[in-house]
Amino acid sequence: MAAAPEPGEPEERKASCTSLHLSYWKSVKLLGFLDVENTPCARHSILYGSLGSAVAGFGHFLFTSRIRRSCDVGVGGFILVTLGCWFHCRYNYAKQRIQERIAREEIKKKILYEGTHLDPERKHNGSSSN
User: Domain coordinates of the chain in residue numbers?
Assistant: First the structure.
């Protein structure tokens, strides 16, 4: 729900600021080439990697009290968790797309053969009644 406009501020300016703010965050690119908004699995991988980095770095710091080594562990945790989440998510995404493609082909065959002598359901029902 939108907030009510304030009496002293024109509505045009509010709309342009809001659209500018939203368009900026929708076009965020990580490292200049990874469009986080439009790439499947990128957002979740980066978020989980950041969490993994914080947990690994802070956990290592609590155990050893070595700042530099804890930062190194945090960076390593970010890389490992991000890549792990990325590959896991992309594998499941590819598997889902293959299943969707197979289902789409089966639906096309069902529509094409329904009611003809090539319909497998018609043969099965016809042979059981004889």
Answer: 41-115
Cβ(79)–Cβ(45) under 8 Å? no
- Exposure string over 19-57, b if 16+ CB within 10 A, otherwise e: eeeeeeeeeeeeeeeeebeeeebbeebbebbeebbeebb
Q: Report how far residue 55's alpha carbon sits from residue 74's, in angstroms, rounded to the nearest whole number.
A: 8
d(CA 8, CA 70): 51
- Amino acid letter at 75? V
Q: Write out pLDDT tens, residues 52-110.
A: 999 999 999 999 989 999 999 999 999 999 999 999 999 999 999 999 999 999 999 88
